[in-house]
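Module 6 notes. Inverse folding takes a fixed backbone as the condition and produces residue identities as the prediction. Think of it as a translation problem where the source language is geometry and the target language is the twenty amino acids. Below is one complete input and output pair. Work through it position by position during the lab.
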């Protein structure tokens, strides 16, 4: 599966700063010091209704991570999956009377278009669950051989008790885990499971549903968590720098994935930092496909909204915060964009080197994009009120906003 084209990232004078970021597993800021190549895995969409503002907010956060690393002159190895086979996708296809594979392809294509418009840097590997199946099957078989998996009516489950570090990503108690498992695709009440929290690794073929050859597992399809594990281990290996996604993935998805990988490899942890973006609400409720309260990037673009304004609307909120999308949020972003563009269009301006360092410092401090925006606002106000004599300043500001914030002025 191919990703989307990369926008050029301008080079800036000076040196970027290492990133300190909030790690869900420890509950505090973690300084990240990757090697020459920083490694990041971000969980992708289930392509049955893309791309809403909640998606865009999540991928914007991890785009900032990449931009901070690139500014330190590192290379970035970024991997993202597409869950192009799962129950929600099949249910939507049946509801709409369309082929599930065609639906997945259509929505994935739309997602690529939206990511391109928003200037999100693409992953080096963009892998669908279906194409990953040949690598998933051996992992499930190995977990079974290790005694960490068991069969139940031809389905295969992972035993969470096989990982002594289970629970160290989310730090939730058993009752909270069970509740979230039931809400987020698990089946804690299924009779016969060794532990209610045990997640499915391989679902045996069901009548009328797609299935694939699973070797000794029989025909079926993979569970949700093992999909990401197989892709991440194949392309990044253990101990990569950042595992990213929305905060709704902390449990069970990232918790279970970490346990799968740790049992498979005997190493801990799967990722050095587990980083999660907040949820976006609309009309007082979390924006979600199940509720149908979605604002789509593609529809905003069709209505003539500048993608740079959409991106500024996202950047106006700290990535970890839960916030609400409103017409005013977008209006404010559009006004800010016009103000910035007017400021950099002048032939001279106030010196910009200090501004570049302010943006760098803000982003290195747990991706504090609102503080970075405020710094650019101050420079633009000074430009408007007093002007300046530095002929290179407007160009430096324009390049810095593009390179570090992904906003083309």
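Target side of the pair, the amino acids:
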């Amino acid at each position: 599966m191919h990703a989307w084209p990369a926008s050029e990232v301008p080079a800036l004078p000076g040196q970027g700063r290492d990133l300190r970021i909030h790690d869900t597993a420890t509950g505090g800021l973690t300084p990240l010091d990757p090697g020459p190549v920083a490694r990041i895995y971000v969980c992708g969409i289930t392509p049955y209704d893309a791309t809403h503002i909640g998606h865009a907010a999540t991928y914007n956060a991890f785009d900032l991570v990449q931009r901070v690393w690139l500014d330190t002159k590192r290379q970035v190895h970024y991997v993202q999956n597409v869950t192009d086979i799962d129950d929600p996708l099949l249910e939507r296809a049946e509801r709409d009377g369309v082929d599930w594979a065609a639906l997945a392809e259509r929505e994935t294509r739309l997602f690529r278009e939206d990511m391109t418009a928003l200037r999100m840097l693409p992953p080096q590997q963009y892998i669908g669950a279906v194409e990953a199946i040949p690598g998933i099957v051996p992992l499930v078989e190995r977990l079974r051989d290790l005694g960490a998996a068991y069969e139940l009516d031809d389905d295969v489950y992972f035993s969470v008790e096989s990982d002594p570090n289970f629970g160290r990503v989310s730090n939730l108690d058993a009752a909270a885990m069970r509740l979230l498992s039931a809400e987020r695709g698990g089946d804690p009440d299924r009779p016969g499971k060794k532990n209610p929290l045990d997640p499915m690794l391989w679902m045996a073929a069901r009548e009328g549903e797609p299935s694939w050859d699973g070797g000794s597992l029989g025909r079926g399809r993979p569970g949700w968590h093992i999909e990401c594990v197989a892709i991440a281990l194949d392309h990044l290996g253990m101990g990569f720098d950042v595992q990213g996604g929305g905060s709704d993935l902390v449990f069970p998805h990232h918790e279970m994935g970490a346990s799968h990988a740790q049992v498979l490899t005997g190493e801990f942890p799967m990722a050095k930092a587990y980083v999660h973006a907040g949820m976006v609400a609309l009309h007082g409720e979390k924006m979600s496909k199940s509720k149908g309260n979605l604002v789509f990037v593609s529809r905003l673009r069709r209505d003539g909204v500048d993608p740079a304004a959409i991106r500024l609307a996202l950047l106006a909120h700290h990535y970890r915060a839960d916030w609400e999308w409103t017409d005013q949020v977008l209006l404010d972003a559009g006004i800010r964009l016009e103000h910035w563009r007017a400021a950099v269009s002048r032939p001279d301006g106030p010196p910009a080197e200090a501004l570049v360092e302010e943006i760098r410092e803000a982003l290195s401090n747990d991706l504090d994009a609102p503080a970075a925006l405020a710094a650019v606002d101050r420079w633009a106000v000074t430009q408007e009120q007093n002007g300046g004599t530095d002929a290179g300043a407007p160009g430096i500001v324009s390049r810095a906003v593009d390179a570090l914030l992904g906003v083309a002025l």
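Reference fact for the lab report: Residues 53-71 form the longest helix (19 residues).
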